[in-house]
Amino acid sequence: MEVLLQVPDDIAERLGGRSEDLSREALESWAAEGCRNGRLSAAEVQRMLGFETRLQTDAFLKERGCYLDYSEEDYRRDLETLSRLSGR
Length: 88
Description:
- The structure is a single chain.
- By secondary structure, the chain is an all-alpha fold.
- The chain has 5 helices and no strands.
- The termini are far apart.
């Protein structure tokens, strides 16, 4: 789906200058906010922004303050699984 945003020229110039860059910036902001508020998964952000790897996606989200919902209990469970799989 293509979405068109209309912004007054003077405001668009202050926000980003060239329309290509401003379009990408708006898309990235929308993706980050969607992840932050739980409406988009990291995989959906990756697809939306055309990132090739999960590492690119994670770096993008981290730069924008979108962190994984990963609790201390999740960490403990992962440690137990790792210990069990490694035979320790």
